[in-house]
Design brief:
Radius of gyration: 22 Å
Strand content: under 5%
Shape: extended
Number of strands: 0
Helix content: over 70%
Order of helices and strands: HHHHHHH
Structural class: mainly alpha
Distance between the termini: 65 Å
């Protein structure tokens, strides 16, 4: 049953990605990007990565969508026609994709019990976490203690992005007021 759900979610992800690429309305693009992040979070849930799914839902579907909508308030509603040839960007994307695929060829298979993370790191965390941290959930122990500074850094980045959008929006409000005064 899980394989069927994974296939459906993957198909929905591909269809949503194609819709994002084809959309001319920037509002539709922002909304479809949020839907893509939400579908990604659902896929992470089926892969038993609930902590990653929660982060993807909060940051990808939530905060990123709000930031894109805030940016839309400062820009046009529809994209402008392309004035240059898409050959160079397409080439860069293809080369990057090939490099990423090549970089993953040496990775162990998903769920491989002989993977380095399963052989070296996981047993160490499983053994030391209850005595060092005294938190029964190992994932929570790793995220809250071992990776605490990393999590704090992520919170700082999201906060800074939110403050930046608020500053941009307040600048837009001042420009609109000035323009209204000039028109009067």
């Amino acid at each position: 049953m899980e394989t069927y759900i994974d296939i459906v979610l993957f198909t929905l992800l591909v269809c949503t990605a194609l819709a994002v690429v084809r959309a001319q309305s920037l509002f539709a693009t922002a909304m479809l990007s949020g839907a893509f992040s939400l579908l990604s979070a659902l896929l992470f849930v089926t892969l038993d990565a609930v902590d990653v799914a929660f982060t993807e839902a909060a940051v990808g579907a939530g905060i990123s969508t709000v930031l894109m909508l805030g940016t839309l308030a400062l820009t046009a509603r529809f994209e402008r026609p392309v004035s240059h040839s898409p050959v160079i960007p397409l080439f860069v994307v293809l080369v990057t994709g090939i490099a990423l695929i090549y970089g993953t060829l040496d990775m162990p298979n998903f769920g491989d019990p002989n993977a380095p993370a399963q052989v070296h790191l996981a047993p160490d965390f499983i053994q030391r976490s209850p005595s060092e941290i005294d938190v029964p959930n190992i994932v929570t122990a790793i995220l809250a203690s071992y990776r605490g500074y990393d999590t704090l850094g992520e919170v700082a980045v999201v906060f800074t992005a939110g403050v930046g959008v608020l500053l941009l929006l307040s600048g837009l409000r001042h420009r609109r007021r000035r323009k209204e005064k000039e028109d009067v």
